[in-house]
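User: For documentation purposes, I need each entry recorded in a consistent format: the amino acid sequence on its own, followed directly by the corresponding structure tokens. There are two entries in this batch. Please keep commentary to a minimum and don't merge the entries.

Assistant: Recorded as requested. Entry 1:
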Amino acid sequence: MRGAGVLGSLPVLLEPAQAFADPPASPGAVAAKPVAPASMAAGKNVSGPSQSGPAGGPVVHAFTQAPKLKTWFSDIDVGLQVEAGIMANSARTHNGQNFGQLLSPYANEPMLNQIALTITKPVDPIGDGYGLGFNFQLIYGSDARIYEIAGISDRWMGTEYELTPTEANVALHMPWLTKGGLDGQIGILMAPMGVEVLNPAQRAFYTLAYTSEYSVPFEHVGAYFQWHVGAWQVLFGIDAGNQVSFGKGNNNGRPDGYFGFSGQPSDTVTVNGLFRVGPEDAWRTLGPAVAHSAQRFWYDLNASWQITPRWSVTGELNHVYDEGIKDNTWSAVGWGSYAATPTLSFNARAEVYRDQTGGFVTQFPGNTSYMRSILGRPARTLSAPPTTYGDLSFNAVWRPHVSRYVKLLQIRPEIRFDRALNNTRPFAAFTHRDRILIGGDVTLGF
């Protein structure tokens, strides 16, 4: 929830950061947010090829160079990804805001959304069945204003374009409990809940659904684990809260946690379910007693179905209830994708989102308004009355091959229709019931 003055706790659980995303079979196709670890490759040979002959005897190599031994550091990957975009607004907004859009907030203004530097080390064996790796990602741009972490990066710059780490964690594999063992990440983590993620190469649309912006968390400092139980995974973890850390970087000094599951009932269907609970409201807003005891409950269920090699669909159901501010949201989102060619796909998204008291869907015009709201400090915000939002979006995703030096070129033109379904006027500085956004983004990965 991101409400005025009471903003509490928001890509991927156990998923490594990626400098760029290798194009999926259908570019732009959306799937349920992956819940996969940077796990060890089964049977990975770390000592070089076999040196035995047909009968187990030695092989004589004449004038051949000895194979290079793989070290733990040899598969570290470094990448760079850049995204820029614009969304023009059909309504002449007096305040220059695209209301309800956190990552494309400014109407008719080109934006450098993010420059992402990513360093990853997949989990490799370190002995006795254990594995170790790490993930690190630093982003600069307008998106960083919404992904900062209080007590870590919220005071670094204070400008329209910010700098923040989105991942800085140690990834582990532990051969415990079951044959598949336990995977974990400890440190700064992207939140696991929901479908749409920060990485533009891993989501279908430039704009985000209301659910993705206001009813799932973004960043955590904590630990998350994935326990492999047969074909399914049990998910659990604990953290300091949404986009907060410790000490003065926390808004109420109480922990939050997740519990859920992920699995594939069939080769073409993936299902994820997560429940989250814990205090998220700032003590400066509600007072220590209420802020420490009032719980926020988050529920998210999503599934994806690859109907054919060309057609796929994804659905998400979400509910959030906050005891402190007595507010809740309900929403349903659906995505559909058609892969016309190996490099071109077309997507559609439809959503109904109910903000019961108007405390969740909030705009943050100031450069530091978002993070100040999380901490309960005075901030400039814009909120609408209780509203049921409907949005319908269409786009194309084109990923042409450029050269071996450019790993990804993604171009996404988009048109989005928003409407207040209960006759309120949340758009165009609270003068319009409807709005059309037209624009898109370009992403380059190296």
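Entry 2:
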Amino acid sequence: MSVYNETISSINEAVNSILMQKFTDLEFIIVNDSPSRVDVQRYLKKLSLTDDRVILIKNNRNSGLVSSLNNGLKVARGRFIARMDADDVSCLHRLDVEMDIIRRGYDFVGTSAREIDTKNITVGKRIMPIEGDISSAQQIRTNNFIIHSSTLIRKSSLDFLDGYRQIPSCEDYDLWSRLLLSGFTGYVTKKILLDYRIRDSGVTSSNKLLMDVSASIVRQGILKCNTLEKYDKLVNPKEIGMKYNKFPLRSSLFRHAYNTGSNKYEDCSRTFKNNHSFKAAIALISTLILYPLNIKKIFFALRVRVEKISPKRKNKEL
């Protein structure tokens, strides 16, 4: 788990949800990616003194999520890696369920989630489109539905790929694609085992344009490439940077408008899903009028289909 700009209250909720898991044979690696925050350092130090399962890593400077995750992987001793975000909350039986599934021979497991706001009020749900195997990158070609902070991953599979790559705001989408192109297999369940927090100051909310640019290139890689080698050549930080810095995307005004519009669209879309009222419909339509680029998101959403491909599962040493 990497800690950056989350509140101490949120961090504490996330921490407790892991340390109180019914599955207890674990080490909890926490990477402090905000070394200048005295409150975080004080909290984490006290935590490590009260539970010997906690392993602390302090970055010398703010290094970003990918570097923090890879730093954590270097010291991890377990055979399985459970991802966790510092503002989410895991259900207390999450690891039990995921361990039961991954021991069947899968390389990664993802779950559904309940969306909550900063006050822990439910604002929506993210339910996996299928209950079953993910054995081909084509299954995630149009939609990265796998929730990163819900996943349990076989460490040997991560080591095979040398961990995460620096794909801006899409390191998880890139990871699933590379795992599947390498012949590894995953499983997603419709069971809700995570509370996924929605907040305006989150990394995802503040980088919508960069995330969408990265995701579009990952999709091209899945569509055009059938091997990991070809995919890695096409999908890389340099290619993403070139596209992100083209006109008009490089304009700060355009980026602000895009990020604002995308966040408003997602908020209104979430509200409409939960409450099909006239007021919610008008609010959703207004985001399309004020931010026309959101129309493209609707057309894209209509294309999203999950291909149910017959599993080609390998036998793995458990």
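Summary note for entry 2:
The CA atoms of residues 130 and 290 lie 34 Å apart.
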